[in-house]
Amino acid sequence: MLSGVELIIAALIVFAGATVMGTLGFGFGLVVAPVFLLLLEPQETVVTVNGIITVLLILIMAQSYRHLRLLRLWPMAAGGLAAAPIGVLALSGADPTTLRITIILVIMALAVLNLTSIQLPMVQNRWVGGVVGFLTSLAITTLSIGGPLAALYVVARRWPHQEIRASLAFFFIVSYLAAFGLYARSGLVHQETMANIGMMVPSVVAGFGLATLLVRRINQRIFRYAVTGVIIGGSAALLGQEFVG
């Protein structure tokens, strides 16, 4: 269980992650995972981070539900639910070193994809959302960092940033709740895990409060730059951590 200096560091990085995700609708894992991997084992990191994110997502959804367009999202949600059991099975049997390297490679691949600014006509087909939902849920249940894939998809569809924020929150709530229930049934959720999540709630609420102020002042252009910056920054942090380690 987190305590002392580790607890303070975790609380500060969760505050930062909650601010980013509360503003953009994704990015918590990118900000928090590099630090939590220094404090906890990879599997414990994934479960703990996903539990904290669920609390934040409920706050975001309560605030932005008016911008939600469910007819656009159900293929993504269905794909996400289908992938959750597979991701949990992969997490429970994953080698910690392999899991850590995979986290880095996935984030770097997503960062490169985002930098290319390639416009793919296929993203306008809503059925592609089912594939994106499946792959995103597989990544977040196994690695806790699948958010950028879904973010790249909805940004490519040119939705307004408030709608993107609400859409990502809804999709992630479905995926994370399904995953966390499966984590518990698989024996991956322990008393220490729940204690760590509970201690992070004040930081989540504080970060969400700051995000509420920021989201009212952000325009579409700044939003896109912020998405790119979060993906690149998270990638660099994890890659640097691996070299140092």
Please count the beta strands (DSSP E, at least 2 residues each). Answer: 0
Main beta sheet: strand number and arrangement? Answer: none
Mean pLDDT: 79
Q: Which spans of ≥5 residues are poorly predicted at pLDDT below 50?
A: none
Count of DSSP-assigned helices? 10
The termini sit apart by 22 Å
Strand content: under 5%
Helix content: over 70%
Helix/strand order? HHHHHHHHHH
Radius of gyration: 16 Å
Architecture overview:
It is a single chain. With 245 residues, the protein is an all-alpha fold. It is 82% helix and 0% strand. The protein has one domain (4-244). It is built from ten helices and no strands. α1 (4-24) packs across α3 (42-64) and α6 (128-142) crosses α8 (161-185). The longest helix has 25 residues, at 161-185. 47% of the residues are buried.
Q: Layout of SSEs?
A:
Blueprint (H helix, E strand, L loop, with lengths): L3 H21 L3 H12 L2 H23 L5 H23 L3 H21 L11 H15 L4 H10 L4 H25 L5 H25 L4 H25 L1
Helix pairs in contact: 1-2, 1-3, 1-9, 2-3, 2-10, 3-8, 3-9, 4-6, 4-8, 5-10, 6-7, 6-8, 7-8
Offer a few descriptive terms.
245 residues; 0% strand; mainly alpha; 10 helices; single chain; 82% helix
Outline of this structure?
The protein has 245 residues and is mainly alpha-helical.
